[in-house]
Hints:
The chain is mainly α and 153 residues long. The chain is built from seven helices and four strands. The strands form two sheets. A two-stranded parallel ribbon has the order 1-4. The protein has a two-stranded antiparallel ribbon with strand order 2-3.
Amino acid sequence: MRINLLITVFVSTLLIGCKSQITQAEYETPRIENVNIPVREYSILAVLWQQHAAEYRALAYQAFNIAQMKLDDILNHRNEVDSKIPLAIVTDIDETILNNSAYNGKMIELGEDCSKVSWLEWGKEKKAKAVPGALSFFKYAKSKEVDVYFCFK
């Protein structure tokens, strides 16, 4: 009996000690007012991520590897009638095949917004690099006699 009383007192003490002493007022989310973070700060982080993150490269390779697997699946399941119809891939170029993060970085550095004039000037510089995995995928598609068409806006 004495042991039961000791256990009850011990458990009660533990439970009382675990009771939260925080009031509702302390649970309220603090308000952040007058935060002056320039909009470009978010662009800077996005461009840096695209240019340097291993995750970006891995995701790009993954996308084109899956595209190749899907293309193989389509090619392997074509019947005699289907095989007479030529296959084609229609794709955008901007940020699908060409990584234009250098242009975005340049606009941030200059403190300018993207414009048609600056975009055309940058395009003439021919500095865009391929998105990881893009060239090998489209070369593979061509090797399988799949036509590739590029869309322009």
